[in-house]
Design brief:
Helix content: 10-25%
CATH topology of the largest domain: FAD/NAD(P)-binding domain
CATH class of the largest domain: Alpha Beta
Bound molecules: flavin-adenine dinucleotide
InterPro entries: FAD-dep_OxRdtase, FAD/NAD-bd_sf
CATH architecture of the largest domain: 3-Layer(bba) Sandwich
Organism: Extremus antarcticus
Protein name: FAD dependent oxidoreductase domain-containing protein
CATH superfamily of the largest domain: FAD/NAD(P)-binding domain
Radius of gyration: 22 Å
Largest sheet: 9 strands, mixed
Low-confidence stretches: 110-134, 297-302
Number of domains: 2
Length: about 425
């Protein structure tokens, strides 16, 4: 809480969507006075360098948890209206559907034709050969029971003309522009950081927090970080309030938090022509794997079909995003810039979406990337938003596969916790970190 003179030194750890929306809403809280309060955001590598820059960006009224989803959905709309989100971060309402279809057998394109442009490839440590075992395909769990309950057989919409008819697609509607929307996560997160900085937040990139200091009375007192701009020299700054928003890295600054990490790969494609605004959850039956002998290829008979479920999101400006399932093959590295991107997993995503769409097959792959999703290892699920039980120490982390959707509500609630001592805008007791600490 406040120091004796009422001044606050608020330190946010992490510049993903949660840290950046927290910074934004702290500066919009009625009690915030830039002459009295100091807000510092410490980001270890780059703003939106992790999942917040590599997510799909779907927003849905049927996302979870229901305690904050409606508030956050509304805040997304308000933020877009206020700051020109349509142009600035690609906010728009969309149709969402589940598409069940058959995939076509395809010739794999040559590596040179599918490589991303220089500087747009991500994850950077080269291909890693992986074994396909039980931990290699883990659902991101966006298709929850609640989401599936929204299915209604609607027939294939005529605007959805970029799924090949020979794949026999069956479309079930999950959302329409009254219930589903999207943002470009990287653009949204960086815009939040810029808007917070304009109101006085000191955003320090390249600042990796090593310790949270506690005073004799047990409350937070300081934060120590390695300053990348100063040769990694350690700096300690005073703190009355610390907001931990380090996503899957939360345990590295606060070990009691039960937050785990799940890796996921994704790609972006510039389609061969602009495609309509749909987000698709797919269920694709691939033909048996092709084999090659003596230069001629054949399809082995009798093998069971493989089912794959890439999520495909059309975005403004002629971009399509697609992601696959998660895996636990490579543990969380020390920072976002050390995340291993397995090129073969990215290629699988490209092949799977190409199997149902000419526009994607004939398009240009513009990014291949990987990141880690923050999951809460507790029955209550995530996220954790609120007090830890230590004076001045707050958590906003563990947003699983809905952190983009739930970022604004989380930021608003954090601003209320810090300035008022409780979250008022939503009934969020179920998210109280003390339930699981
Ligand atoms: C493939 C995929 C698709 C997704 N699609 C969607 C979607 O469509 N809709 C949706 O709502 N959500 C989606 N998500 C989920 C969403 O991306 C995450 O829930 C959200 O990005 C988590 O944000 P965060 O800020 O908590 O974590 P992160 O984005 O991981 O940010 C944490 C930040 O903390 C920094 N950090 C870590 N340790 C330190 C330290 N010691 N000091 C300083 N900084 C530190 C990191 O560098 C990082 O920048 C998706 C996720 C994945 C993986």
């Amino acid at each position: 809480m406040a120091a004796e003179d009422g001044r606050k030194n608020i330190v946010i750890i992490g510049g993903g969507i949660i840290g950046c929306t927290s910074a934004y809403f702290l500066t919009r809280h009625p009690s915030y006075d830039p002459n009295k309060h100091k807000i510092t955001l410490l980001e270890a590598t780059k703003i939106a360098g992790g999942a917040s820059g590599k997510a799909g960006g779907l927003l849905a009224l049927w996302a979870y948890p229901s305690s904050i989803v409606p508030l956050s959905y509304l805040l997304h709309k308000q933020l877009s209206d206020e700051h020109g989100g349509e142009a600035r971060w690609g906010y728009r309402t969309i149709h969402v559907g589940q598409v069940d279809c058959r995939g076509r057998a395809l010739e794999r394109k040559s590596e040179s034709s599918v490589k991303g442009k220089d500087g747009e490839m991500d994850g950077g440590n080269g291909p890693t050969k992986v074994e396909r075992n039980g931990e290699a395909h883990v659902s991101l769990q966006k298709r929850s029971k609640e989401a599936m309950a929204k299915l209604s057989a609607a027939g294939m919409p005529k605007e959805l003309d970029w799924v090949a008819p020979e794949c026999d697609p069956v479309y079930d509607e999950m959302g329409d522009p009254s219930t589903t929307a999207q943002v470009h996560p990287f653009q949204f997160t960086t815009a939040m950081a810029e808007l917070a900085a304009e109101k006085g937040v000191d955003v320090r990139v390249g600042s990796s927090v090593t310790d949270i200091g506690y005073g004799k009375k047990g409350g937070v007192e300081s934060v120590t970080y390695k300053d990348g701009k100063n040769g990694g020299k350690k700096e300690t700054i005073p703190a009355t309030d610390v907001v931990i928003a380090a996503g899957p890295w939360t345990q590295s600054v606060y070990p009691p938090a039960p937050i785990a990490a799940l890796r996921a790969h994704s790609v972006t494609i510039r389609p061969s022509r602009p495609v309509s605004a749909f987000a698709l959850f797919t269920h694709i039956k691939l033909p048996p794997k092709e084999k090659k002998t003596n230069g001629s290829k054949f399809f082995s008979r009798g093998q069971s079909e493989e089912i794959v479920n890439p999520e495909i999101y059309a975005r403004p400006h002629n971009e399509v995003y697609a992601c696959g399932e998660g895996d636990r093959l490579v543990p969380l590295p020390a920072s976002t810039n050390l995340v291993e991107c397995d090129e073969s997993r990215c290629q699988d995503i490209v092949d799977h979406v190409s199997a149902i769409s000419d526009e994607l097959r004939d398009g240009e792959v513009t990014a291949r990337q990987a990141c880690y999703l923050p999951n809460v290892n507790a029955e209550s699920g995530g996220p954790l938003v609120g007090p830890t039980g230590t004076k001045g120490l707050w958590i906003a982390a563990g947003h699983t596969c809905w952190g983009i959707q739930n970022g604004p509500a989380t930021g608003k609630l954090i601003s209320e916790f810090v300035f008022e001592g409780e979250g008022r805008s939503a009934k969020c007791r179920g998210l109280d970190p003390r339930n699981v600490l």
